[in-house]
Amino acid sequence: MSTHLFTSESVGEGHPDKVCDFIADSVLDACLAEDPASHVACEVLAKDHRVVVAGELKTRATLDIPSIVREAVRSIGYTHEDQPFRVDRLEVLDWLGVQSENIDRGVSKAEQGAGDQGLMFGYACDETDVLLPLPIVLAHRLARTLAADRHAGRIPWARPDSKAQVTVRYRDGQPVEVTDVVVSTQHAEGAPQGRIREYVTDALLPSALEEWHRAGLRLWVNPTGEFVSGGPCGDCGVTGRKIIVDTYGGAARHGGGAFSGKDASKVDRSAAYFARYVARQIVRSGLARRAELQVAYAIGVAQPVSLSVETFGTGDPQAAAAFAARFDFRPAAITRQLRLTEPVFRRTTNYGHFGKTDLPWEQ
Asked: Is residue 197 located within the same domain as residue 346?
């Protein structure tokens, strides 16, 4: 029997890069709520008490960018007096401009073309009920449960920034046990590390890992000793830097394009969602136990340049490829089928863009 270890990471909603992703998706949703035809490419940078919102828009929506930023930061939980980055002292710089006419020509013509060239991947496997690899599913559960306990007031010492990492042992391609867990959670000055470790050991792990929790797994909690300075005051945050956290935890390939802050005309986002949708259908239909799609586009052109399917020896690749070819990968068709003109994108930002059963590409 062959065995190997595989590790995936998740981050909390207060991670500096995720703060920026959430603000960018909040701007996108605000545009779509008023104007479903909006085209948005929003980038955010956050450091100390400053937030820079930049990019290009084509929208009829009326936006109050400072208010959008502050509402997003408040909902994350940056309201504590001991945090330099907090909602009541933010300085917001709005550097949003108008979308390039060159790009607009390609995406606004009769048959909508791709908003950029590039390649996107979609992946699904049968090792969890949400058709995602187990390590990223468990890492997201840890980060999401930690955030839920913080928001509920069950751990008053907790602050918004956090990371979680899970290592799983595989035997003959199937997960058999969790071997290692790393949890780093920001906390108030003076919070006893023993108390934090006790919470992780006695509450967080059993709740989040469920049947994969076991005695004897190796655990690291705040390995540097303390984690007081976090969020955008501990590290500069920028949109689009957590693309592996957002997708498959490293278990599948990635085309390199980030998601947050981009409307559906940007195939970096919409085609990656649709490739995931089709990969799910391949696995659900029994054509393969693992499926990875690659789709590629030329800017301004509706039909993909290429579409390929890999089944990793778990199914019939030709049958899977023929099945995938039945789907319409043109940007306008993807937008219609997945209802991507609706303001749903704030729901995607944290704990993975895939695996959430209320999202159209996961149905």
From this structure: no
